Amino acid sequence: MRSLEVLDPGRYALVEDLGRPGYAHLGVAPSGALDTASLRLANRLVGNPSAAAGIEALLGGLSVRLTASATVAVTGPAVEVRVDGRAFGSHAPVPVRAGQTLSVGTPSTGLRCYLAVSGGIAVEPVLGSRSRDVLSGIGPAPLKAGDVIPLGRPGIPAGADVVVPVAAPDELVVPVTLGPRDDWLDDPAAGLSTWWTVTAESNRVGLRLDGTPLRRATDGELPSEGVVTGAIQVPPSGLPVVFLADHPTTGGYPVAAVVRTAALGALAQARPGTRVRFRVT
Environment class of residue 175 by beta-carbon count within 10 Å: exposed (0-12), middle (13-18) or buried (19+)? Predict the structure, then answer.
């Protein structure tokens, strides 16, 4: 059986694919890779379908040993990749022989690196996805040293041989669409357009922000209603939370705006201390 053995998961490593959309009525979040563009690119570089599962490693530090020859690629922020100690670049296909060890360094910017292996991670799917949902606990458990992870049948690598990575910026201007509950807040467009700071309490469920609190325009509370990935929910503190892939499927606080899908990958790479402001489109 083609497989890889986890020698060191680093700070936090999860199996993720493109998620399990369509189960919100069951209370199941879409989940999946937070930076989907990076996972898609890694899969393309090693010849996998774009939806194949890979490993999402928080701040790198991942080390694995392969039991069969494979092509691997690491994407996300630029990071050092080593095979048996020999340095390779990220964002390029790298051949690895059976028994060799692949190690991913710590990126200087950004948060999440993505490792794709030809054939894809072939753990058993749950509700059609191999992704870990950290809020519900659905999907494969966080990786730990000694785990042996099955791999699928490899395809033929295609696409660009080398892709220049983009550094995660210290400041982000994020496009949003107002609503559906912007009328519950006092001038939300102006409030959201000020600078906010990503806090260390952020995770795959949501990006927590600090700054000048948004003010309520109305009293009372909403009944729980459905929320989507990218929803900017405003709790009583007035400090927004941007829901990411493992968000709850319902919420009772007003959603002032929703982040455009194309901008979610940049938010997934925003470290604590990153400054963010929202641009209403």
Answer: middle
Q: What is the pTM of this model?
A: 0.95
Alpha carbon distance 240, 209 (integer Å): 6
CA 124/CA 115 separation, integer angstroms: 18
Q: Given CA atoms 198, 212, 206, 266 in this order, what sign does their dihedral have? A: negative
How do residues 187-239 score in pLDDT, each as one tens digit?
A: 999 999 999 999 999 999 999 999 999 999 988 889 999 999 999 999 999 99
Which strand (E) or helix (H) includes residue 208?
Answer: strand 206-210
Cα–Cα distance for residue pair 91/192, rounded to 1 Å: 34
Average pLDDT, the chain: 95
Strand partners, 57: 13, 113
